[in-house]
Specification:
single chain, mainly alpha, two-stranded parallel ribbon, 53% helix, 2% strand, globular
Length: 220
C-alpha cells in the first residue's frame, strides 16, 4: 500500500511508524533498490512505436516550459560553456517551443524566465511519449524511477555536445523530468479517485480509480 500518494513532503507528519515493508511513501516507491531479487517483480517494458509524435503544438509548448523549469533547477550552477549551450536557448525565442514561456514572462524589458535549448526540448518530448506508454505498466513496481531511467537511457539519448559533465547532466535531466512526470501522474490518479477528473479508462489502473470513485460515491 502506498502512503502519501501525492503529498511528497508529508512523510511521518502523522507520527506513525512507517517501518512495515508493505507500507511505503511516494519518495520510497520511486527510489527503492532496483537490484532487489523478487521473481514477481520483473517488469517487461511494453513496446514503444518507433515514430513518436512531435507535432502537437500544445505538448511542445508545455514541455518547452517544463524544460526551462528543469534548467533552472539543475543541482549545479552552469559554469561550463558547453553545458550552457546544451541546456539554454540564448537567441530569439522559438514560438513553436517557447510560446508558453513567452506568454508567462512578466517583464517586458528583460527575460526573467529560463528558455531551454530546442534540441533538448525535442528529446524531452520523445521521453514524454515513451513515459505515456511505459508508466502505466511500471506503476505497480518499486524502484519505479530507476527502472524508467535505466530503460530510457538505452532507448532515448540527449544529443549533447560532449564535455566532462555530459553524462552527469543527462542523468540529472532524466531524473528531474521523470520526477515531474510521475508526480503529475500520481496527482491525476488521485483526481480520478476524488472525482475531480474524468478518466478515459484507457488503462486498467484508470478503470480501477474510476471504480473506487463510484464505490465511495455510493457510500456517501
Amino acid at each position: 500500500m502506498m502512503k502519501n500518494f501525492c503529498s511528497y513532503h508529508s512523510r511521518g507528519s502523522n507520527c506513525e511508524q512507517d517501518d512495515e515493508s508493505f507500507v511505503v511513501s511516494i519518495r520510497e516507491f520511486l527510489s527503492l533498490d532496483i537490484n532487489r531479487k523478487c521473481i514477481e517483480d520483473q517488469w517487461k517494458p511494453p513496446p514503444v512505436p518507433d515514430t513518436v509524435s512531435e507535432d502537437n503544438f500544445y505538448d511542445q509548448n508545455v514541455i518547452g516550459y517544463i524544460g526551462g523549469f528543469l534548467v533552472k533547477h539543475m543541482p549545479k550552477p552552469l559554469d561550463c560553456e558547453i553545458c550552457r549551450f546544451n541546456l539554454i536557448h540564448d537567441g530569439v525565442p522559438n514560438i513553436q517551443y517557447h510560446g508558453l514561456v513567452v506568454q508567462k514572462e512578466y517583464d517586458g524589458e528583460k527575460r526573467r524566465l529560463q528558455y531551454a535549448n530546442v534540441e533538448m526540448i525535442k528529446t524531452l518530448i520523445k521521453i514524454y511519449n515513451h513515459l505515456v506508454i511505459l508508466v502505466p505498466s511500471a506503476i505497480y513496481h518499486p524502484s519505479l524511477s530507476q527502472r524508467l531511467i535505466s530503460h530510457l537511457r538505452i532507448t532515448v539519448d540527449f544529443d549533447f555536445q560532449e564535455c566532462l559533465h555530459t553524462e552527469e547532466l543527462k542523468a540529472q535531466l532524466f531524473h528531474l523530468f521523470i520526477r515531474v512526470y510521475i508526480f503529475r501522474y500520481m496527482k491525476k490518479l488521485s483526481n480520478f479517485v476524488f472525482g475531480k477528473e474524468e478518466p478515459n479508462k484507457s488503462t486498467s489502473l484508470e478503470r480501477q480509480m474510476q471504480q473506487l470513485y463510484l464505490h465511495f460515491k455510493k457510500r456517501k
